[in-house]
Design a protein that fits this description.
- This protein is an all-alpha fold.
- Helix 1 packs across helix 5, helix 2 runs parallel beside helix 5 and helix 3 packs across helix 4.
- The longest helix is centred in the last third of the chain and has 27 residues.
């Protein structure tokens, strides 16, 4: 969902530079923070690739995400900022999903 949203927003005229990098950093921090919170409480990472990256520590997923930004930007010919925009929305969707689970766990929402 996040990749599709990022792709559509990018092609609808969202300024990928510098705003795409802001979205990327905010989404990455939110996703990483909520994922680490869940893992501390006994949850299991559902994405097998990310589970492998978490074996490298908390910087494993960050490094993998940056690698995807570089490779995706080059392969799709959308540039690093465009790729960062798409990956930013991927992280935002994942982080918001995790945040919803955090709020349910804390009984702040139903």
């Amino acid at each position: 969902m996040g990749g599709l949203a990022g792709y559509l927003i990018l092609h609808l005229g969202f300024p990928s530079y510098p705003w795409g990098w802001y979205v990327y950093l905010a989404g990455l921090v939110l996703d990483l923070w909520t994922t680490l919170w869940a893992l501390e409480r006994g949850a299991v990472e559902g994405n097998p690739i990310m589970a492998l990256m978490f074996r490298l520590g908390p910087w494993g997923p960050v490094a993998f995400s940056l690698l995807l930004v570089v490779v995706g930007g080059s392969a799709a010919q959308i540039g690093l900022s465009g790729s960062a925009t798409i990956m930013g929305f991927v992280h935002l969707v994942g982080g918001l999903h995790n945040l919803k689970l955090m709020l349910v766990d804390a009984r702040l929402i139903g």
